[in-house]
Amino acid sequence: MSAVTAESAQVPLGLPHRAPAASRSRGAGRAPLRPAEELHALAEAGARELGDDAPALDVAQWAAQNFPDTLAVACSMADAVLPHVISRVLPGVDVLFLDTGYHFAETMGTRDAVAATMDVTVVDVAPELSVAEQDERHGPDLWSRDPAACCRLRKVEPLARALSGYEAWATGVRREDAPTRTRTPLIGWDTTHEIVKINPLAAWSMADLTGYADQHGVLINPLLYDGYPSIGCAPCTARVKPRRRPPFRPLGRIHQDRMRNPPYEHHPAPHPSGTRHLPRPCSGAWPRTGRSR
Question: Are strands 195-198 and 187-190 parallel, antiparallel or unpaired?
Answer without folding.
Answer: antiparallel
